[in-house]
Amino acid sequence: GKYKVYLVDEVHMLSPQAFNALLKTLEEPPKHVVFVFATTDPQKLLGTVLSRCMRFDFKNASEQDLVSHLNKIAKAEKISFESEMVPTIIAKQASGSFRNALSLLDQVISLSHETTISEETLFLSLGMAKTQSVNQILKAIIEKDKEKTLAVFNQVTAENVDFKKFTLQILDKIYDCIGDLSRGEISEEDKFVTSISTVELMWIYETIFRDIEWSLHSIDPLKATSFVLLKVSMREEIFGGAETQIEVKKKTESLAPTEPTVETIKPKEI
After folding, report:
1. What are the tens digits of pLDDT across the range 220-250?
2. CA dist., res. 126 & res. 90, Å (int)
3. How far apart are CA 67 and CA 84, in angstroms?
4. Count of alpha carbons within 13 Å of 107, Cβ hemisphere only?
5. CB neighbours of 26 closer than 8 A, spacing ≥ 6?
6. Which are the contacts of 92, defined by CB distance < 8 A and separation ≥ 6?
């Protein structure tokens, strides 16, 4: 070809010394040479480098595009998925990145002993909780069953599932249910969420989402996260449904204000 192309991936990892050595070439590049710098953190690049580059920002891939791409690769590699949920979960975990999606797919394939990737293999390889566990704890939260909420959480963490990922799975499930309710497309499996209002479900989502940041940075993240889930399952007691009310006695006696005394001091006669 007429051009020689140098592709530098994760270019922000280069040291300032390396950039300074490359700067002269970037200022006056040969006509037949093209440099392509790829990075996920452009803010880490030196201003002298950015000023000599044409910048192109790529958008994240949609979940639908990622699922379609995963299905295409699986078909070419003669691999099948147990259900549509498998490529969908991989796409969600990829966060809009084709590279992340392929890496996660390779990770799942490496743990699968068959040509069909099951949901169980997927959750095991990604350190995620089973869909059944997510549904169970959400159902317990909606039904305000604090004992069941803690029992499911303790069971999941005992299975060596990352409790942070588990909490994010719960949030994703609630988010999807809110969307399905607004469209009137709630599935038979998720009918249990209709026992409360959409507003209350939104409050549960917001509370977990807000408090989880505190719990993950606390002294004991595991216990603090279980406390957050316990809190939303006890919302009726927290908002005034508790049987025991705190009584505040009013003050019956009051002291009459006293008039200030004024002391007159006469100047001494000289």
Report:
1. 999 999 999 999 999 998 887 544 443 445 5
2. 9
3. 9
4. 16
5. 35, 49, 52, 53
6. 63, 172
